[in-house]
Amino acid sequence: MDDIVDNRVALVTGGSRGIGAAVALRLARDGADVVLTYQHAAEAASAVVAEIEAGGRRALAVRADSGDRDAATAAVERVVDRFGRIDVLVNNAGALRVGPIGELGPAEFEEVVAVNVRAPFLASRAAAAHMTAGGRIVNIGSNVAERVTFPGFSLYALSKSALVGLTRGLARELGPRGITVNQVNPGPVDTDMNPADGPLADAINGFTALGRFGTPDEIAATVSHLAGDGGAYVTGAVIAVDGGFNG
User: Fold this and answer.
1) Measured between alpha carbons, how far is residue 39 from residues 32, 85, 158, 197 in Å?
2) CATH hierarchy code of domain 9-241
């Protein structure tokens, strides 16, 4: 397969496991050098780095708390210091707080909005300062930005809906510079946080047209397309990779 992100430098936030790890590995297989951030899972992050390097690409894991106001900008600067540039930013790190609104107070609000909205804004701001024509920003959202099927997701849905606005606004702003900005909204994906054999799996599968959970690799394939040459004329798009959950 031809490399589609050949010799580009990518930053994937929250890249130690799940969708983030799959994205980091896919971008590397498609020709990119990859920096990934992690908060706690140092061993898992090191394993992703080792796999990327075994495949012949360069990689680096950077510890960063996306809830920290300065972490996103610092991560971008670390990429530029190490590799001299940044071509692709994937805003994947996320915070999930689920429950009745009466149980979600200011602290939970601040946490979710800081990680899911502020961090992508600041990372995109920092990356855009270094990107040239052909730069790519891909935000990882959620199907709940379009359809909230179960109760308790009001705060999370709010944050992912805000990310849609950021995506479309930045696409318009950065388009004249040849930089694309898109959002991928996964549906139910089989990860350790939401396993395909979990207690709600049957109910969730019932909402999808395909009747199954997706895999992290299926999300990563769409991200890599948007990050590469194939995504050159796609910007401001919100793409559902959800098995027809919102169809």
Assistant:
1) 23, 23, 23, 26
2) 3.40.50.720
